[in-house]
Design a protein that fits this description.
- The chain has a twelve-stranded mixed sheet.
- It is 32% helix and 17% strand.
- It is α/β, with parallel strands linked by helices.
- The protein has eleven helices and twelve strands.
- The N terminus is likely disordered.
- The chain has one domain: TIM Barrel (Alpha-Beta Barrel).
- The structure holds S-adenosylmethionine.
Length: 343
């Protein structure tokens, strides 16, 4: 009884916090679920799906409400966010928002990099703080086999270099490792981090794909990644940047290069998760593996107020799951895949 009283009063005011005491400061907004790549571990390779996008000003309105509740970091994602007309305008408006402490937002974007060469500078000028580029191989042929788009490797590389030149530093490069596809790229990526002066982050493959590829054996684990890196050069552990850091960080013995390993499967970090997601059709997901969405946009469609949205967000955040159950008996894959949830 006492905890129910505490829970409902906490839910009514103050900064967003879930019932486990986790502060929710990080919002990921998918601004489209269209994508110009068909990465084998994400999509089926067939087009023809229905796409859903909201008007840009509605994402902005929703973002404002989240920021008024204590969100400090916004990551734009998709689908492929660079496909979205109006992106730089959205970034410009978001960069004008201030956190409850009066600070600029930490404004980041995740992209496959295909259209980045021409957009890196405009995005920086609009106020983007940081960029993460997904790249699953540094071998061009292998990269094309994964993305199923010819010529993609060199475009993405030019996008990464343009981002660095534009001062969107440090550029992070995310690589999802999938056994049988690209686990032989680990050392090549270590070299890439050192040569291109980017932070490379390896991500364990999660059961969020459209096809049914995921098995426990398909996951290249944190432990294996560390072993492969050690075979290249001695590793030196780096401290986490923040309390809710998802990556275990390393450099090499000579201090050159930085590697992060994000291990949601073998070393889950749910205990300090600070994140919620907004899907491109305006639904809140409190966990990548949630079994249901929460229709925030329904309030906008009914002509509801910002206060109604804020109350809905608080109630929804209070229902955030304690943790995911990947690999456990009875685990249910979410009904939506990564490209539709927003990575
Ligand atoms: N199109 C953008 C991109 O490629 O970065 C943003 C969306 S994408 C869905 C976001 C991230 O999710 C990418 O880094 C992608 O590699 C990752 N991803 C997709 N499916 C995944 C899965 N099943 N497990 C782990 N990461 C996945």
């Amino acid at each position: 009884m006492a905890s129910a009283v505490i829970s409902s009063s906490r839910a009514a005011t103050g900064r967003l916090t879930d019932k486990f005491g986790r502060a929710i400061t990080d919002l990921r907004i998918s601004i489209t679920d269209r994508c110009n790549y068909k990465c084998v571990y994400c999509r089926t390779g067939n087009d023809g799906a229905q796409y859903s996008e909201l008007p840009i000003e509605d994402y902005l309105r929703i973002a404002r409400v989240f920021v008024s509740l204590g969100v400090e970091k916004i990551r734009l994602t998709g689908g492929e966010p660079l496909l979205r007309r109006g992106l730089t305008g959205l970034v410009r408006e978001l960069s004008r928002l201030r956190t409850l402490d009066g600070e600029p937002l930490d404004l980041a974007l995740t992209t496959n990099g295909h259209l980045l060469e021409d957009l890196a500078e405009p995005l920086r000028d609009a106020g983007l703080s940081r960029i993460t580029v997904s790249m699953d191989a540094v071998d061009p042929d292998k990269f094309h086999r994964i993305t199923r788009v010819p010529g993609s490797y060199h475009r993405v590389l030019r996008g990464i270099r343009a981002s660095r030149a534009a001062g969107l530093a440090p550029v992070k490069v995310n690589c999802v490792l999938l056994r049988g596809f690209n686990e032989d790229q680990i050392v090549a990526f270590a070299r890439f981090s050192r040569e291109e002066r980017v932070i490379v982050r390896f991500i364990e493959f999660m059961p969020l794909e459209e096809d049914r590829l995921w098995t426990p054996e398909s996951v290249v684990s944190l432990h294996e990644i560390v072993e492969a890196l050690r075979s290249f050069r001695p590793l030196v552990a780096l401290p986490p940047n923040t309390a809710s850091e998802t990556a275990v960080r390393y450099t090499f013995d000579d201090g050159l290069g930085e590697i992060g390993i994000i291990a949601p499967v073998t070393e889950a970090f749910c205990g300090h998760c600070s994140r919620v997601r907004l899907t491109s059709d305006g639904k809140i997901r409190t966990c990548l593996f949630s079994q249901s969405d929460h229709d925030l946009y329904g309030i906008v469609q009914r002509g509801g107020s910002d206060d109604e949205m804020a109350a809905f967000i608080r109630r929804t955040v209070d229902r955030k799951e304690a943790r995911h159950h990947i690999g456990e008996p009875g685990f249910l894959k979410p009904s939506r895949s990564m490209v539709h949830i927003g990575g």
